[in-house]
From TrEMBL:
<protein>
    <submittedName>
        <fullName>2,5-diketo-D-gluconate reductase A</fullName>
    </submittedName>
</protein>
<feature type="binding site">
    <location>
        <position position="108"/>
    </location>
    <ligand>
        <name>substrate</name>
    </ligand>
</feature>
<dbReference type="InterPro" id="IPR023210">
    <property type="entry name" value="NADP_OxRdtase_dom"/>
</dbReference>
<dbReference type="GO" id="GO:0016616">
    <property type="term" value="F:oxidoreductase activity, acting on the CH-OH group of donors, NAD or NADP as acceptor"/>
</dbReference>
<comment type="similarity">
    <text>Belongs to the aldo/keto reductase family.</text>
</comment>
<keyword id="KW-0521">NADP</keyword>
<feature type="active site" description="Proton donor">
    <location>
        <position position="50"/>
    </location>
</feature>
<dbReference type="Pfam" id="PF00248">
    <property type="entry name" value="Aldo_ket_red"/>
</dbReference>
<dbReference type="InterPro" id="IPR036812">
    <property type="entry name" value="NAD(P)_OxRdtase_dom_sf"/>
</dbReference>
<feature type="domain" description="NADP-dependent oxidoreductase">
    <location>
        <begin position="23"/>
        <end position="262"/>
    </location>
</feature>
<dbReference type="InterPro" id="IPR020471">
    <property type="entry name" value="AKR"/>
</dbReference>
<feature type="site" description="Lowers pKa of active site Tyr">
    <location>
        <position position="75"/>
    </location>
</feature>
<dbReference type="InterPro" id="IPR018170">
    <property type="entry name" value="Aldo/ket_reductase_CS"/>
</dbReference>
<keyword id="KW-0560">Oxidoreductase</keyword>
């Protein structure tokens, strides 16, 4: 199964489908990520705050997969904003991952109250120049945060990783991303199981029509919208199922019907409220 790649604005490419490890227990991470790599995933999304970078690193080392076939993302956490602290945080993440570089380093949340995200962003530019990360981007950035770092730096973020699922479709940021050449990554693509996404008629009917699961339909909706997506599961069966989304295609009508589920419903925190 070949996962499509998406071109980023810095000349690199990213596998459109990956595996996310938020809330994957640190002790179970090596096994679960090993499962994902065996299934065929080559893109892993972790973060310093998930506490499981070391497990991701062990799975990578044990896999024997050449480094240049893997795409690894990690993130700078809220208490590490600033210049020297961001440099130190990146070094610590690389040490835990046991890697020389990551493919993508993100500012996890803007923490606008600290007023340090611009310093962090300028530091990420330097970390990229130093070869510690191939690409740099942000997460949970609103338009105003993006405008500020774009105006004050030489780099448009390669991605903004934001909460995005059918009931919270983020049309404005997707449109803005398309205008400036910034890709959108979805977190919580299955709504984190916090509302009955799978019971929505638009999802259930498409699943029945294609003989696939509602989760596969939801992931496919992201893929056909050009969004980068990395659903999480602890179960090997679901990890495999979520990867098996390239054998069917949602029709224009099915896509439109799922688009109709957008009702501005967040399941996670508003970035303005994250201290
Ligand atoms: P998700 O929407 O991927 O939902 C995960 C939950 O969906 C699982 O716990 C499981 O219960 C269920 N699930 C998964 N596959 C299923 C299947 N096939 N059938 C039925 N149920 C299934 O939520 P997420 O893990 O929060 O988001 C994905 C990834 O996004 C994370 O692992 C992480 O890498 C990233 N993330 C980033 C941020 C951020 O602030 N940048 C925040 C949250 C998550």
């Amino acid at each position: 199964m070949t996962v499509p790649t998406i071109s980023l604005n810095d000349g690199t490419t990213i596998p459109q489908l990956g595996f996310g490890v938020f809330k994957v227990d640190p002790d179970a991470t090596e096994r679960i990520v090993s499962d994902a790599l065996e299934v065929g995933y080559r893109h892993i999304d972790t973060a310093a705050i998930y506490g499981n970078e070391a497990g991701v690193g062990k799975a990578i080392a044990a896999s024997g997969i050449p480094r240049d076939e893997l795409y690894i993302t990690t993130k700078l956490y809220n208490n590490d904003h600033g210049t020297q602290s961001a440099i130190d945080a990146m070094d610590l993440s690389l040490e835990k991952l046991d890697l020389d570089y990551v493919n993508l380093y993100l500012i996890h949340w803007p923490r606008a109250d600290l007023d340090l995200y611009l310093d962090s962003w300028l530091t990420l530019e330097q970390l990229k120049a130093d070869g510690k990360t191939r690409s740099i981007g942000v997460s949970n950035f609103h338009r105003a945060h993006l405008d500020r770092i774009i105006a004050a730096s030489d780099t448009i973020p390669a991605v903004d990783q934001i909460e995005l699922h059918p009931a919270f479709a983020q049309r404005e940021l997707r449109q803005f991303g398309a205008e400036i050449g910034m890709q959108i990554e979805a977190w919580g693509p299955l709504g984190q199981g916090k509302y009955d996404l799978f019971g929505e008629t638009a999802i259930a009917a498409a699943a029945a029509a294609h003989g696939v699961s509602p989760a596969q339909v939801a992931i496919r909706w992201h893929i056909q919208n050009g969004i980068i997506v990395f659903p999480k599961s602890n179960s090997r069966e679901r990890v495999a199922q979520n990867f098996d989304v390239f054998g069917f295609e949602l029709t224009t009508e099915q896509m439109a019907s799922i688009d109709g589920l957008d009702r501005g419903q967040r399941v996670g925190a508003n970035p303005d409220d994250v201290p």
